[in-house]
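Annex B. Sample input.
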Amino acid sequence: MNEASVVAGLRALIGAPSGRVRVGIGDDAAVWSPGPGQLQVITVDECTEGIDFRRTTVRLEDAGWRALAASLSDAAAMGARPLLTVVSLVVPGDLDEGGVILLYQGMADLAARHGVQIVGGDLSRGEVLSLGVTVVGEVRPSNLKRRSDGRAGDVLAVSGPLGLSRAGLAILEGEVDRECIDATLVERAVAAYRRPQPRVAAGRFLGGSRSVRGMMDLSDGLAADLPRLAAACAAAAVIDADALPVDPACRAVAQAMGVAPEDLALEGGDDLELLCTVEKRAFGYLAERVRARLGRALLPVGRLEAGTGVFVRRGGVQRPLDVQGWEALRR
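Annex B, continued. Sample output.
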């Protein structure tokens, strides 16, 4: 069982969206129209202890932050402005009221940064700690981005370097001796894993560009998310591994682990960078605008082509992608 097959089965069961619903199952968020000229998005993400985080490596405040960040990132991938959130919290027996407050403190800290209000939710008890975070936002009809709108010939680009959060996880999980890595890089990587930054401003800016056709967020890693985008676009994707923007901390961790930095960056989830498809002739101008407006780079990682499948081009040789990203249902 994997996420793609489950989603396909659910789409077949439930059917295509109708009425006021514009985007249904299979994208980063659902979209509906509450009135003429208005669109709203809604998305939910589940963050479960033992699967998505461990209390041995993140504080409760960090777990709350991570849970909300994932849903904010989904809204950003649609070009939307997130407005409010509700939280469904399952509380295990070893978590007291103070612990619940700490979880919400982390969410409140991140919500305040993006002008999002926490407006309610639900509390229950269970065997493991789990946070289900729903975010509602709004987007102009002209700014809505779907992962399925990319076309063959488009440039594939990301909103920042890759692999920083994966490097943090490797350090926290003891996959590498942190003493072998520069302390500044260790600090950056651990912070990125514990408190990933959803690219809300970048999503809204890219949403306003006609040159950006499709978009999604990288919550599961480029190796997992790019195949989903390519399939939605009915196109093939080629990753240029030699030009892949690997974060310096990821490169240092990969070298200490004895693995290829590009592979570690490809598999790493939780970067929450945005992956977009951009009209080729407009990419250079758009990248300049992104740098001037947001103070960050829009970095090319490959292209969409006619066909199917995802491939990696390395040293002039092109082969099928053989790196796996995060798969929530993998056992």
